[in-house]
Amino acid sequence: MKIKFPRNVVVDTDNIPQDFEEQIRASFEAYTEGTAEAYTYQDKLAYIDLCRKFLHRAEDASDCVLALMKEYLEYEVTEQGEIPDKEDYLSVEFMENCYENGRTNLYDHYTGDHHVDDKIMDLLVRAIKVVINYEG
What we know:
With 136 residues, the protein is mainly α. It contains 6 helices and 2 strands. The chain has 2 domains: 1-56 and 112-136, no CATH class; 60-107. The two termini are 32 Å apart.
């Protein structure tokens, strides 16, 4: 499986490049280019958050809401036999569902296959070590 890190670092989990750490270091250097040294820790944390976002394939917020709307419509039609009203989407309950899905998006498993997920988590830990130990 191919996974993506910031700055177009693409890694095949079944064929991890020997220079993985060097690629992450170069990616982080490019990410921090032009940033004052006083903000290095903020850059480190932001880069790590970005890695997590990429690895969880986090989507654009509007795309996620549209997907939830489609899922709700499909459920109501196939399971309940009726088309939901516009008010169903404007309800606090639906908005809570959107919020909860967005909040938990980054905490779920990566693929659902623990063999692949273990490889992804190992790569993420390796990337975090590179970034945390980085001294420009």
